[in-house]
Amino acid sequence: MTTSVAERLAIRDEIGKKIELRQNWTEDELQLVFRAAYEQIFGRQGVYASQRFTSAEAMLRNGKISVKQFVEILAKSEFYRECFFYKNSQVRFIELNYKHLLGRAPYDQSEIAYHTDLYASSGYYAEIESYIYSSEYDNAFGNYVVPYYRGFQSIPGMKTVGFNRIFELYRGRGNSDNAQFGGKSSRLRSKIAMNMSNMISPPSSPGLGFTSIAPTLISSPVLGDNRMFLIEAIAGGLNTKVAVRRSRQVYTVPYERLSATYQEIHKRGGKIVKITPAS
Question: Which of 111, 166, 224, 232 has a C-alpha 20 to 30 A away from that of 39?
Fold first, then answer.
């Protein structure tokens, strides 16, 4: 990609951006790793992150954990959940995990379906670990490179459509993942479901700011995905010290309502016991 094209697409500073914690590092280099990790994992919210992870920073400084494990701590944190899990639809959360942890966009419906099923069967931690402990992550970042946006360049195994898709998720370094046009809804759901490419809309255009962003379709059921799930949960009141009889409830929900139902149960103080596909 030429420099002029990269400038027009507002990605010049992101191409080849690689921050690695090498042996015999200095404190300045360590601080650069911290800043890069917070920016990559939390985006704009990263400016609020440093005071929340002093213990994790100390472990990395003392050689107790690797950069990879530091990233895992960030992505499994309550702060990451507050920023991206509780506030978004299930598919939007998966898109952001691909963006933050693998530096690319999901390519097709099989990737979305895999992570939806994984969360339903094994929970939040398993979902995060599936990115960080994947062969793709190891090949791209190893133990000591901070994840970065790879989707702007040709990468091994990358589908051509991935280049277009990353622009629906990356809207510039100063843009918030939770304040983009489209709100809590998926940015890629309809195009992925129809196996279609999306057009490239640059993060910004000279003199136009963000008005050049292409309209994003509001989230709707994925075409052909009519699966139903049974969610078994214990009713609220889990934090009370008063002895109460807690009833179990079973919800039958369609695929597109999974994320909203998870959040409703948690907000009422309930606990999800099991999620299984409805027969």
Answer: 111
